[in-house]
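Hello,

Following up on my earlier ticket. Below are the two sequence lines again, exactly as submitted.
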Amino acid sequence: MYRITEEPLSADAVARAVTVPEAGGVTMFLGVVRNHTAGRRVVALEYEAHVPMAEAKLKEIGEAVYGRWPGVREVAILHRIGRLQVGEASVVIGVSAAHRQDAFEACQYAIDTVKRIVPIWKRELFEDGSAWVGLQGESPPPGWNAGDGR
Amino acid sequence: MRVPVALFARYREAVGRGRVEVEVAEGATVEDVWTALTAVHPALTRYRPHTLFAVGTDYVEAHHRVRAGEEVACFPPVSGGAA
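Thanks for your patience. The regenerated structure is below:
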């Protein structure tokens, strides 16, 4: 399950989707909207995506996970776009595996790679303005594909 | 040939819309598309060192040759996910 959506994300639904009889462990990651950044109060975040490319990259990340951790059984990565309030989930990742170590490692790899290669942008909305995240002082990511940078 | 260009985040805002078309010669590269784009929308020019390019659903380098019918996307470094 790889999806970009404007709808609220359900961690329960993702957990159910990746829970299969062959799995002994399920790891979930939820990225949620934080109420501050660099000392400023954040009131909401707005996410924008290149939707078809972002969904293709999510699938690519899932396939890289299966290739790298043969014990992984199911992977789901969902990212929400649009305006999100503090505390709402922007990304939900679920990984099931025969044994827990694979599930933990694969889930960490998945979120790290989402942040690196999936074309989604975030704007922080403050009480007195807004700012896109991620441009000043940044160079392009070291590798553009899910398999790079291992 | 006319090449559709998709713009996102602050690039979209700088231009005022998320889709534009530029005219380039047959055999043009993505860099040529960027040059044509910034000739019309100079507000984007300063972003070049940080810009990522994609064709379809894949990242491409600036020297990628654009074929008729391909859409080029130009955007800043990604910032999805969470903290």
